[in-house]
Amino acid sequence: MPYLTMKLMEGRSIETKEKLVYNMTKAITESLEIDSSDVRIELIELKKGLFAKEGKLVRDID
Fold first, then answer.
1. Under 8 Å between Cβ of 35 and 25
2. Which of 35, 40, 44, 54 pairs with 21 at a CA distance of 20 to 30 A?
3. Which CATH class is domain 3-57?
4. What is the C-alpha to C-alpha distance for residues 46 and 10, in angstroms, rounded to an integer?
5. Residue pair 8/42 in contact by the 8 Å Cβ criterion
6. Which contiguous run of DSSP H or E holds residue 23?
7. pTM of the predicted protein model
8. Which of 33, 31, 40 is nearest to 6 (CA)?
9. Phi then psi for 14, rounded to 5 degrees?
């Protein structure tokens, strides 16, 4: 059973996250030839101002 963890900056809508996990699940099930009920995806949202990129705090979604 695949278990994926994806980290992303906070602030995206629930609809955007639903689209993301739908497309990820589709790609996984097609690639591994498994049923979607076997796929687990965990989204971890990073707080703005608590994540750095290129030596600077990220305050907005890239």
1. no
2. 54
3. alpha beta
4. 6
5. no
6. helix 14-32
7. 0.81
8. 40
9. -60, -35
